Known about the structure:
two-stranded antiparallel sheet, 6 helices, 36% helix, alpha+beta, 2 domains, Rossmann fold, 14% strand
Amino acid sequence: MASILFEEDALKPIRRKQLLNNLVDGLAKVRPGTIYAEVPRSSISYEFGYRKISYANFANAINGLAQWLHDTLGPAENFPTLAYIGPNDFLYNALMLAAVKAGYKAGGIFMTLLNAVFNQTPLIYPLSGVPLSTKIVLEALNHVKADSVLLAPPLVDEVGANPEMLNFLVKNIDVLLYGGGDVSQAT
């Protein structure tokens, strides 16, 4: 386990290579009231002001999420990669650092255009558990209404090969978009 090498000097900062988690924990310990971020109180307007998040709050959120990941997904073995589907907000930053603390890779955490389908509801999967098919989109469409869906070409091919999936999408969305490659002519 990495050790925290965090010291503070008013004249000259000590620069050492260390984990970002250790920097956050160090600032939370030495300067707990220092502001990490200011987040709008409302998701639709700035008129309600901003909530100040200190390094102590941020470190506490990271530790809580790391414990939640451990309790929910189990102990990490062989440093598995997590996939995150959700908005790029404060949770994204905390989750990225919490994943590392819980023994998961943070490099696989990503944001996607599926956010609109999932109505900004974050989902967290171990990457080995991410359904690599349109089933995740169909599942989401059972719960929320979407006007359009953006799929990668292999998933469009999957929809074209499955009449039930195609009929479901025809009934539930207005537009199916794809990008990133070619779709087979059979589709």
